[in-house]
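This part of the workshop introduces the protein records we will be handling. To make this concrete, we reproduce a full record directly below:
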Amino acid sequence: MTEQYRPDDGAPALFGWEFASDPYPAYAWLRQHAPVHRTRLPSGVEAWLVTRYADARQALADQRLSKNPAHHDEPAHAKGKTGIPGERKAELMTHLLNIDPPDHTRLRRLVSKAFTPRRVAEFAPRVQELTDRLIDGFAARGSADLIHEFAFPLPIYAICDLLGVPREDQDDFRDWAGMMLRHTKAGHGGGRRGGVARSVKMMRGYLAELIHRKRQALPAEPRPGEDLISGLIRAFDHGEHLTENEAAAMAFILLFAGFETTVNLIGNGTYALLTHPEQRHRLQDSLARGEHGLLATGVEELLRYDGPVELATWRFATEPLTIGGQRIAPGDPVLVVLAAADRDPERFADPDVLDLARRDNQHLGYGHGIHYCLGAPLARLEGRTALATLLSRLPDLRLGADPADLRWRGGLIMRGLRTLPVEFTPEAGKAAERQT
C-alpha cells in the first residue's frame, strides 16, 4: 500500500498510472477532505466524484440523477466522451445504462427473467464445463496468464451462450471484446477510443444480422431454455413489440457490461487471494471440507475490497440537488466512486483489511437502486465457480511476477489487471482424462 496522503498535500493527483495501481489512498483523502469533489477528467469533461458510502448510496437511488446523456450540460461535441465509444453512431444508445423510467422499467422487465436465480442455477453446469475446459488448456504447463487464458474467455463464452450466439461465431465475439479490453479508455479521450468504436461497429453489424436470422427461424411458441436474443425478439410489453434497435442495444450492453465486470472479478479476486495467503489458505481448507459458506461470503468481500467496477456509470443532474452538503447544478455529471464507498470506515470496520468471513457486507460493488447490475447473479456464479475450481485444481497457485511489476488498465469506470502471470505444479493426467 502506498503512503497515505496528508491534508497539507492538497487534493491528490487522480487517474494517472500510479493512481491506477493503488487508488485507495487518494480515495481515503477525498472521503475525509472533499467527499463530493469536482474534478476535470482526462477527457476534459468536469464531473463530481462522490466517495462516502452514505452519499454514494443516496446518489445511486436518486432519480433526479438521470442516466440519459441528453441531460448533460456540456456542448454536444463533448457528449460522446461520457459513454461507450461508438455507441451513438452504431444506434446502440437505447440500453439500460442510458435510459430512465418508464423505458428503463419496461426494458429491464423484459430481460430480467434471464437472470432469475432459477435460470442462473440451470446455467451452472455450463459455467463449470467452461471453467474446467479453460483450465485444461494450461493445467499441464505449470504457468499461465490468468487474465487472457481464463478470466477473459470464461464470461465471453458464457454470455454468448446466454444470448444465443452460435458456437461457431463466439470466437469473433471474443476478438471484438478483446479489442474493447485492450483499448477502453472510457472518460480518457484519445485515439484508443477509436479501437473500441471499431469493435462496437463490427459487433452491431453482427447483432443486426443475427437478430434477422433468429426472427426468420423463430418458432411460434418459446422452447424451454430459449436464448435471450430470441426472447427479446419475441418479447412485448403491453402490446408494444421491442424494436430491433432496442433488442440490439440490449444484447450489446449485456455483453459489454457483462464480460468485463466478470473478467475483473476473477482477476482482482485471484490477485487479492494470492497476496493474502492466510485468507487464501482459509478458503482452500473450507473448500477441501466440502463447505461453501466461506466461498459465498468471500466473493462478496472480494467485490467490496477491490471490486471490478471502480466508478458507477454516468449520471446527470436534472435539477438542483445537494449531495453530502455540496450543491450540484442541473446538467452536471456525477460519478459515484464505488471503490471509495466500499472502503469507507464509517460503514465497514477495518475497511482496508481483506476478511473473507466478513458479515453485514452490504457493499456497492454492483450498484444500488433501480440500476443495480442485472447480471450480478450470473457474475457471482462465474466468480464462485472460477475461484473454487482454480484453488482446488491448482492448490499451490502463486504469482509469477512481482506485484510491483503488474499493470492495471487505465480506464475510468472499470478496475482490472492487464495481465496476471501465475505459476503452479503442473496438473498431471486430469486434463487429458477429461478430454478423452
In short: The radius of gyration is 21 Å. The mean pLDDT is 85. Residues 236 and 242 are 6 Å apart (CA to CA). The longest strand covers residues 36-40.
